[in-house]
Amino acid sequence: EEHYDLGSEVMPSCHRGTQILHGKQRSSGRMVVVKVRQKVEVSGTRAKRWLAGARFMASLPSRGHIAQIYEVLEDAKAYYVVMERVPGQDLFESIAGQVQLPLVEVREIIVQILVALADLHDRGQIHRDLKLENVMLDRPSPGPGAAPAAAYDCA
Fold first, then answer.
1. How far is it, in rounded angstroms, from Cα 55 to Cα 12?
2. Calpha distance 18→152 (Å, rounded)
3. Looking at residue 12, which CATH number applies to its domain?
4. How far apart are CA 148 and CA 13, in angstroms?
5. Is 129 in the active site?
6. 49 and 78: one domain?
7. Structure pTM?
């Protein structure tokens, strides 16, 4: 927390004791997203597995379809996963107001999600919380060129 200023919630987390917050790195001014997980809510083997997965993902170079994890920090009360802030909106928000997306856009989004998942699997990781809200589009609405990035909960 001492390296970042934490702001408002990006989105509600479905995991008790976890918040996903906007953040700003003090040294560079870079805007980030910080996943804050309270230690009292996760312990033992589960905590070790989650932390190891986050640290492993942070050690890998970015490949574009997966939000990059910059660093994993901890203090006495919580773990902090600092990750890339993807511009745009999540897939749920993007399609919520639309009756039907054009088939070409649906195909492009699905292909890019599958590429991201294959990349995770190639790295020995699985995405344990894949849902529309965890697929970020790098533009306000889906369409050719929209590039999903998903990696909020890997193991």
1. 23
2. 11
3. 3.30.200.20
4. 19
5. yes
6. yes
7. 0.79
